[in-house]
Amino acid sequence: MIGLIVARSKNNVIGKNGQIPWRIKGEQKQFKELTTGNVVVMGRKSYEEIGHPLPNRLNIIVSRTAKFEGENLMTASSVKEAIALAGDAKVYISGGYGLYKEVLPFVDKMYITEVDTTIEDGDVFFPEFDADEFDVKTGETGGDEIKFTRTIYTRRVQKKQVGDKEIIYRKLTEADLDSFIHMRITQITEEYTVEGREVPKNVDLASALQDFYHRHMADGTFVSWLALDGDKIIGTSGMSFVEKPPYYTCPTGRIGLLSSMFTNPDYRRMGIAKDLLDHVVDEAKDYGCGAVWITASNMGVKLYTAYGFEHNGNFMQYKLK
Ligand SMILES: NC(=O)c1ccc[n+]([C@@H]2O[C@H](COP(=O)([O-])OP(=O)(O)OC[C@H]3O[C@@H](n4cnc5c(N)ncnc54)[C@H](OP(=O)(O)O)[C@@H]3O)[C@@H](O)[C@H]2O)c1
């Protein structure tokens, strides 16, 4: 995933006299949360303004003239080289102008903080881009004398080279529902019958699923990302959002329920399930969820464990029939 993080003023200024032209308490918190444990890529001038590598993340500095090396610190001579150096890790491009401009045609996700101020005589601006290529969500607001609003731009159609194939990742739409439901029923029928059980005759899953997806896609409480090879859906993922009374480790009370994880057997062991998981876990983060729950299939346990899921000690269920 190639991400971008920026804060810009109402008149699109991001820098003035070599500095960010505002200091707002809490404004940089999101930057720290997103980049920690991942990779941050910045231009030479932005790095020199900070003056040291940011801790607990790999810092890749883009420069044609200077070389920075050290613990968690590398230099690349182009943005493409920086992205290649990051390998499979999540990469966050964090300015300035030239780096943003170069990644805007293909960046997957942009975290743009809209700062409610107008800066006179700014000398570095955020480049123009085509907002129609992105889904936009408005997030938290904050600030003191100067207020800010978080926005998240997610590219609607993301392309990734996986082996010799170009895989497309995008969200499920109403137009996909028939194929999606067919795949879902095939998968759960296989899982249900594997132990010799017969599928109950009186359950009309197709209609129930149509009804579920229509309602929950419309109110935003279900989202799914698909992987496609050409027009063919070869992987699916799904996330439902539910709420509980808030508690300390989940102050929003919002929980993501992961479902519908499936990869066509011909496309397994290529990292596609992990990419789909990344997409829906990001959706859960953007929705403000404090945790994601899954009832894993035997095959899924390995993937989820490697991803960082943990068994939930005393989780229990009481069957109502
Ligand atoms: N508001 C925000 O979110 C935000 C974020 C970041 C920065 N800023 C502000 O923006 C300003 C700095 O941005 P800037 O655009 O002037 O500088 P910058 O991008 O930080 O640094 C520019 C330098 O990076 C290297 N570089 C950039 N593009 C390159 C490329 N495609 N290939 C190889 N090297 C490349 C070059 O280094 P060499 O000259 O060494 O080759 C270039 O001189 C500061 O005011 C900073 O505070 C604001």
Written account of the structure:
With 321 residues, the chain is of the alpha/beta class. The protein has two domains: 2-155, Dihydrofolate Reductase, subunit A, CATH 3.40.430.10; 163-307, Gcn5-related N-acetyltransferase (GNAT) (Aminopeptidase, 3-Layer(aba) Sandwich), CATH 3.40.630. The chain has eight helices and 17 strands. Strands 5-4-3-6-1-7-10-9 form an eight-stranded mixed β-sheet, with helices on both faces. Strands 11, 12, 13, 14, 15, 16 and 17 form a seven-stranded mixed β-sheet that branches. Strands 2-8 form a two-stranded antiparallel ribbon. The longest helix has 17 residues, at 177-193. The two termini are 43 Å apart. The mean pLDDT is 96.
Keywords:
321 residues; alpha/beta; Dihydrofolate Reductase, subunit A; Aminopeptidase; eight-stranded mixed β-sheet; 8 helices; 17 strands; 26% helix; binds NADP nicotinamide-adenine-dinucleotide phosphate
